Amino acid sequence: DSGVTQTPKHLITATGQRVTLRCSPRSGDLSVYWYQQSLDQGLQFLIHYYNGEERAKGNILERFSAQQFPDLHSELNLSSLELGDSALYFCASTPGGADTQYFGPGTRLTVL
Amino acid sequence: SQQGEEDPQALSIQEGENATMNCSYKTSINNLQWYRQNSGRGLVHLILIRSNEREKHSGRLRVTLDTSKKSSSLLITASRAADTASYFCATGYSGGSNYKLTFGKGTLLTVNP
Asked: In tens digits, what is the pLDDT along chain A, a chain of 112 residues?
């Protein structure tokens, strides 16, 4: 158990809908990273937050957004969902300034 | 685009044998890490090697890094059926205040009992 929690574990929704994925980092970790994993694209970095501030963006679509709250949990919002958004979404946390990332168990999103 | 490229894409061995996976990358790095993922689950950090290190050991794991060839290898000795998983290399790079980890597509290791 990495200490990172993600909810929900599974999410099934329809095209055009909006969903919110939640991540709670390890106690004391200030950085949260979001990744998308699909069979064709592999593990893609989406966005990084540090202590509530956005630090870096990767291959994140404009339909996706994220935020990190004062209690350091983070949410990834996915809107106008398409079939191709079906994937595993992971968050990972680090203390900040550390290199090793601790991954949550992921949320499996299925868009029908 | 992916920074790290693992080779082979899939590897099947017998229990007790050694498994070697390779990773090549294209640009400068601060460190290179290896992660393991059991099917559909979260990634687990295995080992980190810094750009000024050439070899590192952790239990049955041995990692080498050749920055001149921009390549790394992960050796798992005396493999067990429980080692069956996907293994990813990830290159770490710090630019300013940002640290970015870029993953390859992974090697699927199957250890047959």
From this structure: 889 999 999 999 999 999 999 999 999 999 999 999 998 888 999 999 999 999 889 989 999 999 999 999 999 999 999 999 999 999 999 987 668 899 999 999 999 9
The amino acid occupying position A66 is A
Of residues B31, B33, B42, nearest to A90 (C-beta): B42
Q: Taking every pair of C-alpha atoms in chain A, what is the biggest distance, in angstroms?
A: 39
**Matching residue, tokens 């079939």:** A83
- Chain A residue with minimal CA distance to B86? A42
Query: How far apart (Å, rounded) are the C-alpha atoms in residues B105 and A57?
Result: 20
Measured between alpha carbons, how far is B37 from A82 in angstroms, rounded to an integer? 26
- Residue A88 is which amino acid? L
Residue pair A62/A92 in contact by the 8 Å Cβ criterion: no
Q: Which residues in chain A are closer than 8 Å to B6, comparing Cβ atoms?
A: none
A42 → closest Cβ in B48, B99, B103: B103
Helix (H) or strand (E) holding A101: none
The answer to whether the CB of A81 falls within 8 A of the CB of A13 is yes
Question: Does a cis peptide bond (omega within 30 degrees of 0) precede residue A8?
Answer: yes
3-state SS string over A46-93?
A: EEEEECCEEEEECCCCCCEEEEECCCCCEEEEECCCCHHHCEEEEEEE
Amino acid at site A4: V
Q: Are A94 and A29 in contact (CB under 8 A)?
A: yes
